[in-house]
Protein backbone atom coordinates (compact mmCIF):
# COMPACT_ATOMS: atom_id res chain seq x y z
CA UNK A 1 0.00 0.00 0.00
CA UNK A 2 2.83 2.41 0.88
CA UNK A 3 4.62 1.61 -2.38
CA UNK A 4 1.43 2.26 -4.35
CA UNK A 5 0.89 5.52 -2.52
CA UNK A 6 4.37 6.76 -3.30
CA UNK A 7 4.12 5.72 -6.95
CA UNK A 8 0.86 7.58 -7.37
CA UNK A 9 2.32 10.68 -5.78
CA UNK A 10 5.38 10.40 -7.97
CA UNK A 11 3.24 10.03 -11.05
CA UNK A 12 1.15 13.00 -9.97
CA UNK A 13 4.27 15.11 -9.59
CA UNK A 14 5.61 13.98 -12.97
CA UNK A 15 2.36 14.75 -14.73
CA UNK A 16 2.13 18.21 -13.18
CA UNK A 17 5.74 19.03 -13.98
CA UNK A 18 5.33 18.08 -17.63
CA UNK A 19 2.12 20.00 -18.28
CA UNK A 20 1.10 23.60 -18.47
CA UNK A 21 -0.12 23.60 -14.89
CA UNK A 22 3.24 24.67 -13.51
CA UNK A 23 4.44 26.67 -16.51
CA UNK A 24 5.26 30.18 -15.35
CA UNK A 25 2.99 32.81 -16.84
CA UNK A 26 4.07 36.41 -17.41
CA UNK A 27 4.07 38.34 -14.16
CA UNK A 28 1.10 40.66 -13.65
CA UNK A 29 1.83 44.04 -15.25
CA UNK A 30 1.75 46.17 -12.11
CA UNK A 31 3.78 47.25 -9.13
CA UNK A 32 1.85 44.84 -6.91
CA UNK A 33 3.76 41.76 -5.80
CA UNK A 34 3.24 38.51 -3.96
CA UNK A 35 3.87 38.99 -0.25
CA UNK A 36 4.25 36.39 2.48
CA UNK A 37 2.09 36.96 5.56
CA UNK A 38 2.92 35.47 8.96
CA UNK A 39 0.98 35.51 12.21
CA UNK A 40 -2.37 35.45 10.45
CA UNK A 41 -4.21 33.42 13.09
CA UNK A 42 -4.91 29.82 14.09
CA UNK A 43 -2.78 27.54 11.90
CA UNK A 44 -2.52 24.04 13.42
CA UNK A 45 -0.62 22.50 10.50
CA UNK A 46 1.86 25.30 9.82
CA UNK A 47 0.60 26.38 6.40
CA UNK A 48 2.32 29.33 4.74
CA UNK A 49 0.33 32.26 3.36
CA UNK A 50 1.15 34.42 0.36
CA UNK A 51 -1.08 37.33 -0.59
CA UNK A 52 -1.58 39.24 -3.84
CA UNK A 53 -3.30 42.62 -3.56
CA UNK A 54 -3.60 44.46 -6.91
CA UNK A 55 -2.67 48.11 -7.16
CA UNK A 56 -6.37 48.88 -7.69
CA UNK A 57 -9.12 46.93 -5.95
CA UNK A 58 -12.86 47.36 -5.96
CA UNK A 59 -14.70 48.83 -3.02
CA UNK A 60 -15.07 45.99 -0.49
CA UNK A 61 -13.06 43.63 -2.71
CA UNK A 62 -13.84 39.98 -3.22
CA UNK A 63 -11.37 37.35 -1.95
CA UNK A 64 -10.21 34.29 -3.89
CA UNK A 65 -8.30 31.45 -2.22
CA UNK A 66 -6.19 29.82 -4.98
CA UNK A 67 -4.99 26.38 -3.86
CA UNK A 68 -2.06 24.50 -5.37
CA UNK A 69 -1.51 20.85 -6.41
CA UNK A 70 0.71 18.24 -4.71
CA UNK A 71 4.43 19.11 -4.99
CA UNK A 72 3.43 22.74 -5.51
CA UNK A 73 3.37 25.91 -3.45
CA UNK A 74 1.47 29.15 -3.25
CA UNK A 75 4.17 31.07 -5.18
CA UNK A 76 4.23 28.35 -7.88
CA UNK A 77 0.45 28.55 -8.26
CA UNK A 78 0.74 32.35 -8.42
CA UNK A 79 3.24 32.20 -11.28
CA UNK A 80 1.66 29.23 -13.07
CA UNK A 81 -1.98 30.33 -13.23
CA UNK A 82 -3.90 33.37 -14.44
CA UNK A 83 -5.57 34.37 -11.19
CA UNK A 84 -3.21 37.24 -10.28
CA UNK A 85 -3.38 38.76 -13.77
CA UNK A 86 -7.18 38.55 -13.65
CA UNK A 87 -7.14 40.11 -10.18
CA UNK A 88 -5.32 43.11 -11.69
CA UNK A 89 -8.13 43.46 -14.21
CA UNK A 90 -11.04 42.85 -11.87
CA UNK A 91 -9.95 44.23 -8.56
CA UNK A 92 -10.14 41.23 -6.19
CA UNK A 93 -7.56 39.90 -3.72
CA UNK A 94 -5.91 36.46 -4.02
CA UNK A 95 -4.71 34.28 -1.14
CA UNK A 96 -2.20 31.53 -2.02
CA UNK A 97 -1.85 28.94 0.79
CA UNK A 98 1.12 26.56 0.80
CA UNK A 99 1.08 23.07 2.28
CA UNK A 100 4.30 22.38 4.20
CA UNK A 101 4.13 18.63 4.87
CA UNK A 102 6.19 16.15 2.86
CA UNK A 103 4.91 16.02 -0.71
CA UNK A 104 3.18 19.41 -0.37
CA UNK A 105 -0.32 17.90 -0.55
CA UNK A 106 -3.18 19.40 1.42
CA UNK A 107 -4.85 17.29 4.09
CA UNK A 108 -8.21 16.18 2.70
CA UNK A 109 -8.15 12.78 4.41
CA UNK A 110 -7.96 13.06 8.19
CA UNK A 111 -11.01 13.34 10.45
CA UNK A 112 -9.73 16.72 11.62
CA UNK A 113 -9.72 18.04 8.05
CA UNK A 114 -13.28 16.92 7.35
CA UNK A 115 -15.10 18.90 10.01
CA UNK A 116 -15.89 22.52 10.75
CA UNK A 117 -13.33 24.04 13.12
CA UNK A 118 -11.26 20.84 13.12
CA UNK A 119 -7.52 20.64 13.65
CA UNK A 120 -6.00 20.62 10.18
CA UNK A 121 -5.40 22.65 7.01
CA UNK A 122 -8.91 24.13 6.57
CA UNK A 123 -8.55 25.97 9.88
CA UNK A 124 -5.39 27.72 8.69
CA UNK A 125 -6.94 28.63 5.33
CA UNK A 126 -9.99 30.18 7.00
CA UNK A 127 -7.65 32.14 9.28
CA UNK A 128 -6.04 33.55 6.13
CA UNK A 129 -9.48 34.58 4.85
CA UNK A 130 -10.36 36.27 8.14
CA UNK A 131 -7.04 38.12 8.10
CA UNK A 132 -7.79 39.57 4.66
CA UNK A 133 -11.37 40.45 5.54
CA UNK A 134 -10.15 42.39 8.57
CA UNK A 135 -6.99 44.01 7.17
CA UNK A 136 -8.24 44.88 3.67
CA UNK A 137 -11.92 45.70 4.27
CA UNK A 138 -12.86 42.81 1.98
CA UNK A 139 -16.42 41.61 1.43
CA UNK A 140 -17.33 38.53 3.53
CA UNK A 141 -20.21 37.84 1.14
CA UNK A 142 -17.75 37.37 -1.76
CA UNK A 143 -15.19 34.79 -0.65
CA UNK A 144 -14.36 32.03 -3.15
CA UNK A 145 -12.03 29.03 -3.50
CA UNK A 146 -10.43 27.56 -6.61
CA UNK A 147 -7.89 24.78 -6.72
CA UNK A 148 -6.22 22.18 -8.91
CA UNK A 149 -5.74 18.48 -8.04
CA UNK A 150 -4.94 18.46 -4.30
CA UNK A 151 -6.20 22.04 -4.31
CA UNK A 152 -9.41 20.93 -6.01
CA UNK A 153 -9.91 18.32 -3.33
CA UNK A 154 -9.34 21.02 -0.72
CA UNK A 155 -11.88 23.24 -2.50
CA UNK A 156 -14.46 20.49 -2.01
CA UNK A 157 -13.43 20.18 1.63
CA UNK A 158 -13.59 23.92 2.33
CA UNK A 159 -17.08 24.22 0.87
CA UNK A 160 -18.23 21.33 3.03
CA UNK A 161 -16.48 22.47 6.23
CA UNK A 162 -17.20 26.18 5.90
CA UNK A 163 -20.41 26.88 3.96
CA UNK A 164 -20.70 29.99 6.12
CA UNK A 165 -17.41 31.39 4.76
CA UNK A 166 -17.29 30.46 1.06
CA UNK A 167 -19.79 31.71 -1.48
CA UNK A 168 -18.69 29.38 -4.31
CA UNK A 169 -15.84 27.18 -5.46
CA UNK A 170 -14.21 25.89 -8.63
CA UNK A 171 -12.55 22.47 -8.42
CA UNK A 172 -10.19 21.57 -11.27
CA UNK A 173 -9.72 17.77 -11.38
CA UNK A 174 -10.79 16.95 -7.85
CA UNK A 175 -12.88 14.40 -5.95
CA UNK A 176 -15.97 14.72 -3.76
CA UNK A 177 -15.86 15.88 -0.16
CA UNK A 178 -14.98 12.89 2.02
CA UNK A 179 -13.93 10.64 -0.86
CA UNK A 180 -10.27 10.74 0.19
CA UNK A 181 -11.00 10.02 3.85
CA UNK A 182 -8.69 7.51 5.51
CA UNK A 183 -8.59 5.90 8.94
CA UNK A 184 -5.05 4.50 8.94
CA UNK A 185 -3.19 7.78 9.23
CA UNK A 186 -2.21 7.87 5.55
CA UNK A 187 -3.09 10.80 3.31
CA UNK A 188 -3.73 8.92 0.07
CA UNK A 189 -6.86 6.96 -0.82
CA UNK A 190 -6.12 4.85 -3.89
CA UNK A 191 -9.71 3.67 -4.36
CA UNK A 192 -10.91 7.27 -4.56
CA UNK A 193 -8.04 8.38 -6.81
CA UNK A 194 -8.85 5.53 -9.19
CA UNK A 195 -12.54 6.46 -9.36
CA UNK A 196 -13.62 3.26 -7.62
CA UNK A 197 -15.77 4.85 -4.90
CA UNK A 198 -19.39 5.37 -5.84
CA UNK A 199 -22.15 6.45 -3.47
CA UNK A 200 -25.74 7.56 -3.78
CA UNK A 201 -26.35 11.30 -4.07
CA UNK A 202 -27.90 11.23 -0.60
CA UNK A 203 -24.85 9.52 0.91
CA UNK A 204 -22.47 12.00 -0.71
CA UNK A 205 -24.67 14.91 0.36
CA UNK A 206 -24.81 13.62 3.92
CA UNK A 207 -21.00 13.52 4.05
CA UNK A 208 -20.75 17.19 3.07
CA UNK A 209 -23.58 18.28 5.37
CA UNK A 210 -22.13 16.25 8.23
CA UNK A 211 -18.99 18.40 8.28
CA UNK A 212 -20.92 21.19 9.98
CA UNK A 213 -23.83 19.69 11.94
CA UNK A 214 -26.64 22.09 12.61
CA UNK A 215 -25.77 24.53 9.85
CA UNK A 216 -28.96 25.63 8.06
CA UNK A 217 -27.80 28.58 5.96
CA UNK A 218 -27.21 28.86 2.24
CA UNK A 219 -24.76 26.43 0.61
CA UNK A 220 -21.90 27.49 -1.67
CA UNK A 221 -22.30 27.04 -5.41
CA UNK A 222 -19.83 24.65 -7.05
CA UNK A 223 -18.15 24.55 -10.45
CA UNK A 224 -16.50 21.21 -11.33
CA UNK A 225 -13.89 20.57 -14.04
CA UNK A 226 -12.42 17.27 -15.22
CA UNK A 227 -10.52 15.88 -18.17
CA UNK A 228 -11.88 12.57 -19.44
CA UNK A 229 -8.32 11.27 -19.92
CA UNK A 230 -7.25 11.98 -16.33
CA UNK A 231 -5.32 8.94 -15.06
CA UNK A 232 -4.31 10.41 -11.68
CA UNK A 233 -7.65 11.41 -10.16
CA UNK A 234 -9.76 9.50 -12.59
CA UNK A 235 -12.70 10.84 -14.53
CA UNK A 236 -15.50 8.92 -12.70
CA UNK A 237 -14.90 11.30 -9.78
CA UNK A 238 -16.61 14.06 -11.76
CA UNK A 239 -19.93 12.18 -11.76
CA UNK A 240 -19.59 11.54 -8.03
CA UNK A 241 -18.95 15.26 -7.38
CA UNK A 242 -22.05 16.14 -9.40
CA UNK A 243 -24.08 13.69 -7.31
CA UNK A 244 -22.79 15.27 -4.11
CA UNK A 245 -23.28 18.94 -4.85
CA UNK A 246 -26.65 18.59 -6.58
CA UNK A 247 -27.84 16.72 -3.49
CA UNK A 248 -26.40 19.37 -1.18
CA UNK A 249 -28.38 21.98 -3.10
CA UNK A 250 -31.48 19.82 -3.39
CA UNK A 251 -31.57 20.02 -7.20
CA UNK A 252 -32.06 17.41 -9.89
CA UNK A 253 -29.16 15.49 -11.41
CA UNK A 254 -30.78 16.11 -14.78
CA UNK A 255 -29.09 19.15 -16.34
CA UNK A 256 -31.14 22.31 -16.72
CA UNK A 257 -28.79 23.48 -19.47
CA UNK A 258 -26.13 21.91 -21.69
CA UNK A 259 -23.76 23.55 -24.15
CA UNK A 260 -20.23 23.32 -25.59
CA UNK A 261 -18.30 26.54 -24.89
CA UNK A 262 -15.24 25.16 -26.70
CA UNK A 263 -14.45 22.18 -28.92
CA UNK A 264 -14.43 18.94 -26.90
CA UNK A 265 -15.98 20.67 -23.89
CA UNK A 266 -19.39 19.80 -22.48
CA UNK A 267 -20.83 22.14 -19.89
CA UNK A 268 -23.87 21.16 -17.85
CA UNK A 269 -25.75 23.26 -15.29
CA UNK A 270 -27.96 21.91 -12.54
CA UNK A 271 -30.79 23.65 -10.73
CA UNK A 272 -30.77 26.63 -13.08
CA UNK A 273 -29.86 27.40 -16.67
CA UNK A 274 -28.16 30.68 -15.77
CA UNK A 275 -24.54 31.57 -15.08
CA UNK A 276 -25.18 31.44 -11.32
CA UNK A 277 -26.51 27.88 -11.33
CA UNK A 278 -26.02 26.03 -8.03
CA UNK A 279 -23.81 23.44 -9.76
CA UNK A 280 -21.92 23.66 -13.06
CA UNK A 281 -19.73 20.93 -14.55
CA UNK A 282 -17.31 21.11 -17.47
CA UNK A 283 -16.13 17.81 -18.96
CA UNK A 284 -13.24 17.96 -21.45
CA UNK A 285 -12.93 14.89 -23.65
CA UNK A 286 -9.34 15.27 -24.84
CA UNK A 287 -7.53 16.35 -21.67
CA UNK A 288 -5.89 14.50 -18.82
CA UNK A 289 -4.61 15.72 -15.46
CA UNK A 290 -3.37 19.12 -16.58
CA UNK A 291 -5.89 21.78 -15.64
CA UNK A 292 -6.39 24.73 -15.38
CA UNK A 293 -5.12 26.34 -18.54
CA UNK A 294 -6.08 28.83 -21.25
CA UNK A 295 -9.26 30.63 -20.31
CA UNK A 296 -10.44 28.24 -17.62
CA UNK A 297 -9.61 30.61 -14.77
CA UNK A 298 -11.66 33.32 -16.46
CA UNK A 299 -14.61 30.93 -16.73
CA UNK A 300 -14.33 30.16 -13.03
CA UNK A 301 -14.42 33.88 -12.24
CA UNK A 302 -17.49 34.30 -14.45
CA UNK A 303 -19.19 31.55 -12.43
CA UNK A 304 -18.28 33.42 -9.25
CA UNK A 305 -19.60 36.69 -10.68
CA UNK A 306 -16.15 38.28 -10.77
CA UNK A 307 -16.04 38.80 -14.52
CA UNK A 308 -16.52 42.57 -14.45
CA UNK A 309 -13.68 45.08 -14.52
CA UNK A 310 -12.40 47.16 -11.64
CA UNK A 311 -15.09 49.61 -10.63
CA UNK A 312 -14.95 52.72 -8.47
CA UNK A 313 -16.92 52.83 -5.24
CA UNK A 314 -20.61 53.55 -5.87
CA UNK A 315 -21.64 57.14 -5.32
CA UNK A 316 -25.05 56.36 -3.81
CA UNK A 317 -25.74 55.87 -0.09
CA UNK A 318 -26.09 52.08 -0.26
CA UNK A 319 -25.20 49.01 -2.30
CA UNK A 320 -27.00 45.66 -2.49
CA UNK A 321 -25.53 42.33 -3.64
CA UNK A 322 -28.18 39.66 -4.24
CA UNK A 323 -27.50 36.02 -5.10
CA UNK A 324 -30.03 33.27 -5.79
CA UNK A 325 -29.49 29.51 -5.39
CA UNK A 326 -32.49 27.76 -6.95
CA UNK A 327 -33.78 24.19 -7.23
CA UNK A 328 -36.94 22.50 -8.54
CA UNK A 329 -39.60 24.59 -6.76
CA UNK A 330 -37.54 26.49 -4.21
CA UNK A 331 -34.70 28.93 -3.81
CA UNK A 332 -32.61 30.77 -1.28
CA UNK A 333 -31.59 34.39 -1.68
CA UNK A 334 -28.56 35.87 0.07
CA UNK A 335 -28.56 39.66 0.34
CA UNK A 336 -25.68 41.90 1.43
CA UNK A 337 -26.55 45.52 2.27
CA UNK A 338 -23.58 47.91 2.37
CA UNK A 339 -23.70 51.46 3.72
CA UNK A 340 -21.68 53.42 1.14
CA UNK A 341 -22.51 56.80 2.67
CA UNK A 342 -20.49 58.73 5.24
CA UNK A 343 -23.18 58.62 7.93
CA UNK A 344 -24.28 55.67 10.07
CA UNK A 345 -27.59 53.90 9.49
CA UNK A 346 -29.55 53.29 12.69
CA UNK A 347 -32.59 51.17 11.90
CA UNK A 348 -33.35 50.17 8.34
CA UNK A 349 -35.90 48.72 5.97
CA UNK A 350 -35.04 47.34 2.54
CA UNK A 351 -37.83 47.33 -0.04
CA UNK A 352 -37.80 45.22 -3.21
CA UNK A 353 -40.27 43.47 -5.49
CA UNK A 354 -40.02 39.69 -5.89
CA UNK A 355 -40.55 38.29 -9.39
CA UNK A 356 -43.97 36.72 -9.95
CA UNK A 357 -44.47 33.26 -8.47
CA UNK A 358 -41.89 33.67 -5.69
CA UNK A 359 -43.13 33.46 -2.10
CA UNK A 360 -40.95 33.75 1.00
CA UNK A 361 -41.36 30.88 3.47
CA UNK A 362 -38.66 31.73 6.01
CA UNK A 363 -35.79 34.14 6.49
CA UNK A 364 -32.80 35.05 8.58
CA UNK A 365 -31.33 38.27 10.03
CA UNK A 366 -34.45 40.28 9.10
CA UNK A 367 -38.26 40.14 9.18
CA UNK A 368 -40.08 40.05 5.83
CA UNK A 369 -43.58 41.22 4.94
CA UNK A 370 -45.56 40.50 2.92
CA UNK A 371 -44.29 37.16 1.63
CA UNK A 372 -44.64 38.05 -2.08
CA UNK A 373 -44.94 41.04 -4.36
CA UNK A 374 -43.39 44.20 -2.91
CA UNK A 375 -41.53 43.00 0.19
CA UNK A 376 -40.09 45.02 3.06
CA UNK A 377 -37.20 43.47 4.99
CA UNK A 378 -36.72 45.11 8.41
CA UNK A 379 -33.67 44.87 10.63
CA UNK A 380 -33.37 42.53 13.58
CA UNK A 381 -32.56 43.97 17.00
CA UNK A 382 -28.89 43.03 16.67
CA UNK A 383 -28.14 44.45 13.19
CA UNK A 384 -30.00 47.75 13.16
CA UNK A 385 -26.79 49.80 12.96
CA UNK A 386 -24.73 49.85 9.78
CA UNK A 387 -21.61 52.00 10.06
CA UNK A 388 -20.20 53.79 6.98
CA UNK A 389 -18.49 51.19 4.81
CA UNK A 390 -19.96 48.29 6.79
CA UNK A 391 -22.31 45.56 5.55
CA UNK A 392 -25.16 43.45 6.86
CA UNK A 393 -26.03 40.03 5.45
CA UNK A 394 -29.62 38.83 5.36
CA UNK A 395 -31.47 36.17 3.39
CA UNK A 396 -34.54 34.07 2.92
CA UNK A 397 -35.92 30.85 1.51
CA UNK A 398 -38.80 30.95 -0.96
CA UNK A 399 -40.91 28.79 -3.24
CA UNK A 400 -41.27 29.58 -6.93
CA UNK A 401 -43.37 28.49 -9.88
CA UNK A 402 -40.54 28.50 -12.41
CA UNK A 403 -39.24 32.05 -12.27
CA UNK A 404 -36.00 32.29 -10.29
CA UNK A 405 -34.98 35.82 -11.27
CA UNK A 406 -33.84 38.62 -9.01
CA UNK A 407 -35.50 41.90 -8.01
CA UNK A 408 -34.61 44.74 -10.36
CA UNK A 409 -34.20 47.44 -7.71
CA UNK A 410 -33.80 48.01 -3.97
CA UNK A 411 -34.41 50.97 -1.69
CA UNK A 412 -32.94 51.35 1.77
CA UNK A 413 -34.94 53.68 4.01
CA UNK A 414 -36.69 55.00 0.87
CA UNK A 415 -33.38 55.74 -0.95
CA UNK A 416 -32.37 53.81 -4.09
CA UNK A 417 -29.32 51.54 -3.77
CA UNK A 418 -26.72 50.55 -6.32
CA UNK A 419 -27.07 46.88 -7.32
CA UNK A 420 -24.03 44.67 -7.90
Automatic annotation (TrEMBL):
Note the PROSITE patterns from the entry: CBM2
Q: Which SUPFAM superfamilies match?
A: alpha/beta-Hydrolases, Carbohydrate-binding domain
* This protein's record includes keyword Cytoplasm: no
> What Pfam families is this protein classified in?
CBM_2, Esterase_PHB
Looking at the record, the residues that make up the CBM2 domain are 311-420
Check the UniProt entry and state the signal peptide residues, or none: 1-31
- According to the lineage, what is the superkingdom? Bacteria
User: Is Nucleotide-binding among the key words of this record?
Assistant: no
Q: Which InterPro entries match?
A: AB_hydrolase_fold, CBD2, CBM2/CBM3_carb-bd_dom_sf, CBM2_carb-bd_dom_sf, Esterase_phb, Plant_Biomass_Hydrol_Est
One BP annotation, GO: carbohydrate metabolic process
Cellular component aspect of the GO annotation: extracellular region
Recite the UniProt keywords alphabetically.
Hydrolase, Signal
* GO MF annotation, one: polysaccharide binding
In terms of PANTHER family, this protein maps to: FERULOYL ESTERASE, UNNAMED PRODUCT-RELATED
- The name under which this protein is listed is Poly(Hydroxyalkanoate) depolymerase family esterase
Species: Phytomonospora endophytica
